[in-house]
Specification:
By secondary structure, chain A is of the alpha/beta class. Chain A has helices at about 1-20, 45-65, 75-85, 100-110, 120-125, 165-180, 185-195, 205-215, 225-235, 260-265, 270-275, 280-290, 295-300, 315-320, 320-330, 335-340; strands at about 35-40, 65-75, 90-95, 125-135, 155, 220-225, 240-245, 245-250, 255, 295, 310-315. In chain A, strands 4, 5, 6, 7, 8, 10 and 11 form a seven-stranded mixed beta sheet that branches. Chain A has a four-stranded mixed beta sheet with strand order 2-1-3-9. Chain B is globular and about 65 Å long.
């Protein structure tokens, strides 16, 4: 009997190891005719990369004769970064902010620390900003950040611990508080009042959009400009209105080849070409159509009616870069923890 | 006399109880079920089929079936071995063993998932070794299977242990004394005694294996067409504003659950019948 149980145990273990072996690198390098690229991205880019992938696949086929197929994974930017560090084998990471790719370089050692220099424009081929989405007719008359801290206003924003977008939201609010109150203390007071008005913290930007638009919770959603446009389009035209605040932040979602994984899969070349493709006029047009702000000045000029110009602070000049901002505001024991526990 | 009084007095109360139970069931179980199907079919059967036929949806259906097909047999083997050991032998640490079997019931699925990330993740205990040998567990199908096996661990064993305890080991002892070997005893004596209970456990195990969300979500990596099970795919479609698609896949999951329920009722009926019919 003992023998049989040992047998059963070993059969079970054998099965599992066998399964592991089956799935081992079955996507490695690919042959000459086809190659597979895994793009691990953040929440609101689903529609964007669907369009980009089709366009790139066509171009790559024309250039090299090779079929490229894409595996997409979407989620909160911080969560996705964590998954890549834990072993999700992304060839390219297209996340919500540079810090989340820094983390992959720091903790995962999967790409060089100076990754941001390897592509133009700080490795951010498109930008966006943070705006408000309100319900039709703007019943609570929300015009600017100052209106969000009024009593009785329900503010929807995701959790800065897991969501890249939420960190941009937080810093944009901080920039307003700093400008309106003239000091860091005033900014902290403002942001802490704002978070007192937040009934739900979802883990990603898309979760918050669903909470606001589908479940009908809250009066205003703080979100990416692209997400606000998309929600307006997908969830019924005329049900929501975009409010552009007096001040916001220039959000630079970053992209990078995860070099160690790409080496392992033999996808370095196609991964690099894929990210460089994002800077071409074709891709920039797709980017603008998907409500992201293009970098290419010609494409930007064509779409300038769509994207109002507003007063934008930047992470580097106003917050000393992401590393500093992350440690000060969002790491354990940082400002965000302080204001949310105080509540 | 007094009994009659109790019955007649409680008629109103009985009606109230039954009525409120039915209303409760209707509101919390039937209504959501109807909502799922009506949402799925809102834009016609054609759209429903298109959503189900979509390659990523098909991949998620295949993956879910594969996971059930692997984790359920594993749990049958384990459940049989564990309940056999517990009921036919006495050994030290037996109650600890029984408690351990219950562990997956009491641990939150998120924690179950994170256990596997800690073990097999790139920076987990076994991560470097796995990486060196190019074996992928986490964020791949094996990790999802491991998480599912862990979550569904107790179902078969929990179903069998009381049953086998009740039956005792007299039958097996008789068989052995008549010269049967271990395998013959198991096949001709034990298995027929427990088959309905076993099937029941298998069904519960299967239902959970197909429906598990939390633990699987942690270890999956959410790669479309590759590591998305049906429950994960439902969430993804919902997040993409594809409500018809989300509810179409959700309704398939619901159908699977209903089939399981019907099979369970049939088995329960057979089981009772068998139990009563065979008599003691």
């Amino acid at each position: 009997m003992i023998n049989r149980r040992i047998l059963l145990t070993s059969v079970t273990l054998g099965l599992l190891v066998g399964l592991g072996a089956c799935s081992k690198s079955d996507k490695a390098s690919g042959d000459a005719t086809s190659i597979e690229l895994t793009n691990v991205s953040y929440d609101p880019t689903r529609e964007l990369y669907k369009a980009i992938n089709d366009a790139f696949a066509q171009k790559w086929k024309a250039d090299t004769g090779q079929n490229v197929t894409f595996k997409m994974s979407h989620g909160g930017s911080g969560k996705q970064s964590r998954a890549i560090i834990d072993g999700l084998e992304a060839d390219v990471a297209t996340l919500g902010l540079a810090y989340d790719i820094d983390a992959i370089a720091d903790k995962g050692k999967l790409l060089p620390a100076n990754w941001q220099a390897s592509l133009p424009e700080n490795s951010a081929p498109y930008t966006s900003t943070i705006v408000f989405l309100v319900r039709k007719g703007n019943p609570k008359a929300i015009k600017d950040w100052g209106d969000l801290v009024k009593p009785g206003i329900g503010v929807i924003t995701p959790n800065p611990k897991t969501s890249g977008g939420a960190r941009w939201n937080f810093l944009a609010a901080w920039a307003y508080g700093r400008k309106a109150g003239g000091s860091e203390t005033a900014a902290e007071q403002f942001v802490s009042k704002l978070f007192a008005n937040v009934p739900v913290l979802d883990s990603g930007a898309r979760g918050s959009t669903t909470t606001f638009a589908e479940r009908g919770i809250g009066d205003v959603l703080i979100t990416w400009e692209n997400e606000a446009f998309l929600a307006g389009q997908e969830l019924g035209k005329g049900k929501f209105e975009i409010v552009v605040p007096s001040i916001s932040i220039l959000a630079e979602p970053s992209v990078a080849v995860v070099t160690e994984n790409a080496k392992k899969h033999g996808t370095e070349k196609v991964a690099d070409a894929y990210l460089r493709f994002l800077y071409t006029p074709d891709a920039q047009t797709i980017i603008a159509r998907n409500f992201y702000r293009p970098r290419d000045p010609k494409v930007a000029a064509k779409f300038k009616d769509k994207f109002p110009s507003l007063n934008l602070v930047t992470i580097d000049s106003d917050f000393g870069g992401w590393k500093k901002a992350q440690a000060y505001y969002f790491d354990d024991g940082g400002v965000f923890d302080r204001i949310t526990t105080k509540k | 006399m007094s009994q009659r009084a109790i019955v007649s007095e409680s008629r109103f109360a009985r009606g109230l109880l039954i009525g409120s139970a039915l209303a409760f069931l209707g509101f919390f179980l039937l209504l959501p079920l109807v909502a799922v199907f009506s949402e799925a079919l809102k834009q016609g059967v054609g759209t429903f089929w298109d959503a189900v036929k979509e390659p990523d949806a098909l991949a998620s259906i295949r993956l879910t079936l594969l996971i059930a097909a692997i984790s359920v047999p594993l749990n049958i083997v384990f459940g049989l071995a564990a309940s056999w050991a517990i009921t036919k032998y006495s050994f030290r640490g037996k109650s600890l063993f029984i408690t351990l079997i219950d562990l997956p019931f009491s641990v939150s699925p998120v924690v179950s998932g994170l256990i596997f990330v800690l073990l097999f993740g790139a920076h987990g205990w076994l991560g470097p070794w796995l990486n060196a040998h190019d074996v992928k567990i986490i964020f791949a199908v094996p990790g999802i299977i491991l998480a599912t096996v862990f979550i569904t661990f107790p179902f078969v064993a929990r179903e069998l242990i009381p049953l086998m305890m009740e039956q005792g080991k007299d039958d097996e002892e008789a068989a052995v004394s008549l010269g049967a070997n271990g395998w013959q005893t198991f096949w001709h004596v034990t298995l027929p005694n427990i088959r309905w209970g076993l099937l029941y456990g298998v069904l519960l195990c299967n239902a959970r294996a197909m429906g598990e969300f939390g633990a699987v979500s942690v270890v999956s990596g959410h790669i479309r067409g590759l590591t998305n099970t049906m429950p994960l795919h439902v969430e993804i479609l919902y997040n993409e504003y594809d409500f018809v698609g989300a509810f179409a896949v959700a309704s398939l999951l619901a159908v699977l659950a209903l089939v399981t329920l019907v099979a369970k009722s049939v088995l329960e009926w057979r089981f009772d019948y068998h139990h009563g019919g065979a008599g003691h």
